[in-house]
Amino acid sequence: MLCLPATSETFHLMNASTFAMTKPGSFLINVGRGQLVDQDALREALRSGRCAGAGLDVFWEEPVDPRHPLFQENVIATPHVGGITDISFWMRARAFAANIERYAHGQPLLYTVNQPSHRRASSRPSG
Q1: Tell me: the pLDDT tens digits for 30-87?
Q2: Is 62 one of the catalytic residues?
Q3: Are 41 and 14 in contact (CB under 8 A)?
């Protein structure tokens, strides 16, 4: 399973050489970025049986052409929504509600990447 960002180090991480080192009959799942996989090498790995199938949630270009030859192989494709489930919606709604409550009470928010350096002043009258 690939769940990595697209960087110069991860570009075509899965290529002809890496597919040659995988166990025959393996499956590739990519939920990271499309640039992690060399699409031509994946197609060859699928055709040769080195790779038994692929689950792709991200692609080399988006939107991807549904007539792309790779989709003639054993590939399941989702439009970058493979992680969206009823449980994930429930958890996100719960976190959102908790953050509304925290914001109203001047508390730091949960799960922020760029937390402000100052807290929100409480709008409740002191007294």
Answers
A1: 999 999 999 999 999 999 999 999 999 999 998 889 999 999 999 999 987 877 788 8
A2: yes
A3: yes
CB neighbour class for 19 (10 Å; exposed up to 12, middle 13-18, buried from 19): buried
Q: Which two tokens stand for residue 55?
A: 């689950």
Q: Which two tokens stand for residue 37?
A: 């996989």
Return the SS3 of 73.
Answer: coil
The verdict on whether 80 is a catalytic residue reads yes
Chain centroid to CA 64: 16
- What does DSSP assign to residue 65? P
Instruction: HSE, CB side, 13 Å, CA atoms: give it for residue 82.
Output: 17
| 73 catalytic residue (yes or no) | no
Name the catalytic one among 12, 68, 80, 102: 80
